[in-house]
């Protein structure tokens, strides 16, 4: 079994516990572990896989809490870095009409430093790049690029999820899009939400978006479509893989559960690089990953709602 190294941010989401028109009005908040790459690492280990998280937290109680949560979920955190800057925080409120208000207090995640010893561990393993905060600058941006170069030169299986957050790119998405393209070109697996696929390709139609990506990339591309399942595409095959029917109560983390489940299955393969040619195997894996995403919507929060193997057997 290969280890999946998940690189990017981990943070605290302070989520307003009651509907409020905006954060000015919101009064009470619940502390939730967040950060897509950290969720993906948890999703992998919860299914019995090997994952390690590479990101930075502060020397403060929130940083301690986050590493404790990841550790309890079975994620290897010994590569995570602690800095003297405060742990990254996000505050979110939701109005009764479903409108979100969001502020982001960026802290420790931006200080991830490059560690050249990782070259050796990436070899024959897998590296997952989650980009929500990676291209916002700071030391993380440089370290991220160097880890990407290492993963490429070490022949690792590379996966990429842009995790676009509109609130973080107030001047517009152009720089974000430009930064993502080399990762899409070189990755072996990319996962986009429909909105991300449209943004990154400039195409509204899902298949035109996929055509655009395959002009630049031979990756396995999954466009997640919520209850409609996943549009799966490799250069020689394309299909929509249906999900299962569930009664969702909180969709947070569905995409990360999907990605974690897919990466977990790929980590079990002898030769991950041949997966794009094994369409029945790939389709089966995406079917299972859809179940993981669907299952996560049936519980509150991202990490607490991730499925284990027994949960997936139920479907
Ligand atoms: P995120 O909100 O975490 O950024 P995302 O938008 O990438 O995620 P979704 O498309 O919401 O992810 O969900 C990922 C996968 O989970 C979908 O492709 C689908 O298979 C499954 N899924 C999500 N919501 C539902 C649902 N309501 N019913 C059935 N399956 C679902």
TrEMBL record:
InterPro entries: Carboh/pur_kinase_PfkB_CS (IPR002173), PfkB_Carbo_kinase (IPR050306), PfkB_dom (IPR011611), Ribokinase-like (IPR029056). Residues 1-307 form the Carbohydrate kinase PfkB domain. Keywords: Kinase, Transferase. Pfam families: PfkB. It comes from the Bacteria. GO terms for molecular function: kinase activity. Belongs to the carbohydrate kinase PfkB family. This is Carbohydrate kinase. It comes from Sediminicola luteus.
């Amino acid at each position: 079994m290969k280890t999946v190294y998940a690189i990017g941010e981990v943070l605290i989401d302070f989520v307003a516990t009651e509907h409020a028109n905006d954060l000015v009005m919101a009064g009470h908040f619940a502390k939730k572990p967040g950060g897509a790459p950290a969720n993906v690492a948890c999703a992998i280990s919860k299914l019995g896989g090997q994952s390690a998280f590479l990101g930075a937290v502060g020397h403060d109680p929130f940083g301690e809490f986050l590493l404790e949560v990841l550790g309890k979920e079975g994620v290897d955190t010994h590569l995570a870095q602690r800095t003297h800057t405060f742990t990254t925080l996000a505050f979110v409120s939701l109005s009764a009409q479903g409108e979100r208000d969001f502020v982001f207090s960026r802290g420790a995640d931006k200080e991830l430093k490059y560690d050249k010893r990782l070259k050796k561990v990436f070899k024959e393993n897998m590296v997952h790049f989650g980009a929500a905060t990676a291209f916002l600058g700071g030391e993380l941006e440089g370290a991220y690029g160097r880890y990407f170069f290492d993963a490429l030169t070490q022949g690792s299986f590379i996966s990429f999820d842009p995790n676009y957050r509109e609130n973080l790119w107030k001047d517009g998405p152009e720089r974000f899009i430009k930064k993502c393209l080399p990762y899409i070109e070189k990755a072996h697996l990319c996962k986009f939400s429909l909105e991300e696929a449209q943004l990154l390709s400039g195409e509204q139609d899902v298949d035109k978006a996929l055509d655009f990506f395959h002009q630049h990339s031979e990756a396995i591309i999954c466009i997640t479509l919520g209850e409609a399942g996943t549009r799966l595409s490799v250069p020689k095959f394309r299909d929509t893989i249906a999900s299962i029917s569930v009664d969702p109560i909180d969709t947070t983390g569905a995409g990360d559960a999907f990605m974690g489940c897919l990466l977990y299955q790929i980590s079990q393969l002898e030769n991950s690089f041949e997966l794009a040619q094994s369409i029945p195997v790939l389709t089966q894996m995406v079917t299972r990953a859809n179940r993981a995403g669907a299952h996560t919507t049936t519980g509150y929060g991202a990490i607490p709602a991730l499925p284990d193997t027994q949960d997936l057997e139920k479907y």
